[in-house]
Design brief:
Elements: H1 3-28, H2 38-53, H3 59-69, H4 77-84, H5 86-99, H6 104-125, H7 130-152, H8 169-186, H9 193-202, H10 210-232, H11 237-256, H12 264-285
Keywords: Membrane, Transmembrane, Transmembrane helix
Organism: Claveliimonas bilis
Protein name: UPF0721 transmembrane protein
Length: about 290
């Protein structure tokens, strides 16, 4: 049995446990569910996870959509992102971990580091008040917009072409530490994909290696930190399970039907929307909740 297969088996066992915890929490609070924005959130999840599979990322798209329509309360956005998108990302990881050859040790260590980071991050983020959440989300969107612009213009590490399929020695340590930090930031709504790709390229690995690393990391860390958000009640209970279903459908459509799309213009548009939403978060933060 290959390392990739073992990783996927463990991942889905963990995802199953996560889903049971989620269902129990939703059922326990069934009389408190606000379903007014459920239809909108289901569509957002499908679209966001569709583009996530293509490498654009889902967090910024979903955050912007929720912010514009006020479909998810600001203080619930980080938790909703990690809880609702956890299983769709597992579907992504299943597709890409099997497709792309990578050094097993590098993959396992970087994924493990992101899990530890996410658990620590969730304990911090889930206890922040709404004003701090708004500030964190505003900063997150600005950072992701800047990194995404670097990505599509091949600025900095995005312009480096490597060939390595894994890391050793000091470079492996750097990769592990970096993914640990990204795991923490992931719980604040800062998507892991773009910065992870930058790290992979900067360390001299092939660009395609970024896909199993970033998708595998998120597939493990989202359920890991998601359980913390569930226990804290810091996520949108009413829409989460329907969003999981629609998000998984979006992933499958992108993964098996779509082969190529003209994404550059769309990515620029997403960056503009992210900046606008960041300004909105900072403006709302001044109201102190």
């Amino acid at each position: 049995m290959s390392a990739a297969t073992i990783l996927l088996i463990i991942m889905w066992v963990f995802a199953a446990v996560f889903f049971v915890v989620l269902v129990k929490d939703v059922v326990a609070h069934k009389d408190e569910l606000d379903k007014s924005k459920m239809g909108y959130n289901v569509i957002v999840s499908m679209i966001a996870n569709f583009f996530d599979t293509l490498g654009i990322g889902s967090y910024a798209i979903a955050t912007s959509a929720w912010k514009f329509n006020k479909a998810v309360d600001d203080d619930l956005i980080p938790g909703t992102l990690n809880v609702a998108f956890g299983i769709p990302i597992c579907v992504e990881a299943t597709i890409f971990i099997q497709r792309i050859d990578m050094d097993p040790l590098t993959l396992v260590l970087m994924i493990a580091a992101s899990i530890v980071g996410s658990v620590i991050g969730a304990r911090i983020i889930s206890r922040l008040d709404i004003m701090k959440i708004r500030v964190v989300m505003g900063v997150a969107l600005i950072l992701v917009a800047a990194i995404t612009l670097c990505k599509i213009n091949e600025v900095g590490p995005f312009g480096i072409l490597g060939t390595a399929r894994g890391l050793t020695g000091g470079l492996l340590a750097v990769g592990v530490i970096a993914n640990f930090i990204l795991g923490i930031l992931m719980t604040a709504g800062i998507g892991l994909y773009a910065p992870c790709m930058a790290i992979v390229l900067l360390l001299g690995m092939s660009a395609d290696v970024a896909f199993p690393v970033m998708m595998g990391s998120c597939a493990y860390l989202c359920p890991a930190c998601g359980i913390t958000f569930i226990k804290e009640g810091k996520y949108n209970r009413a829409s989460t399970i329907p969003m999981i279903i629609s998000g998984a459908i979006g992933v499958l459509i992108a993964g098996f039907i779509v082969t190529s799309l003209p994404l550059t213009v769309l990515t620029y548009l997403v960056c503009v929307v992210m900046v606008i939403c960041a300004v909105m978060f900072f403006h709302d933060a001044k109201k102190r909740g």
